[in-house]
Design brief:
39% of the residues lie in helices and 31% in strands. 27% of the residues are buried. It contains 4 helices and 6 strands; from the N terminus they run βββαβαβαβα. The protein is globular and about 40 Å long.
């Protein structure tokens, strides 16, 4: 799909692919400064309960997420900002760290952050499509 808007900070690239799908390409270490910039992008896009986003994170070139950025995310990101999050290309250790972060985020409020880990971009796109169909077809509740 075409990129509607793009942000670059450090070695990180964030792209708005449609009105509600945000792609993040993590290269190298994801610093606390990078995480702060990403949270600013969420705010700029108006992410929230009335305008939740899908977040797709490409971790195939990632070196991981140290303690300070994880803590910042846990303190400043809300599950209600997202329809779902899908990570791909993550090493096993990165998956474990991110699973723990998702669990921590799920304790911050009433909403549950749905997160999925897949191996490839193609699988991430398939997950997005299937998730959207499930969400759009779900009865109001």
């Amino acid at each position: 799909m075409a990129v509607l808007r793009e942000w670059v900070f450090g070695t990180q690239r964030v792209s708005l692919e449609s009105s509600d799908i945000l792609w993040t390409k993590v290269r190298g270490s994801f610093s606390e400064t990078d995480v702060r910039e990403l949270v600013e992008v969420f705010h700029e896009l108006g992410a929230g309960p009335d305008k939740p986003l899908y977040l797709v994170v490409d971790l195939s070139s990632s070196e991981g997420l140290s303690v300070a950025p994880r803590k910042y995310l846990a303190e400043h990101v809300r599950p209600t900002w997202f329809r779902g999050v899908v990570f791909f290309g993550a090493k096993r250790t990165h998956r474990e760290v991110l699973r723990a972060l998702v669990v921590a985020l799920n304790f911050t409020g009433d909403a549950k952050l749905e997160a999925e880990f897949v191996d490839s971009e193609a699988q991430a796109r398939a997950w997005l499509e299937a998730h959207r169909r499930r969400q759009d077809g779900a009865p109001p509740g």
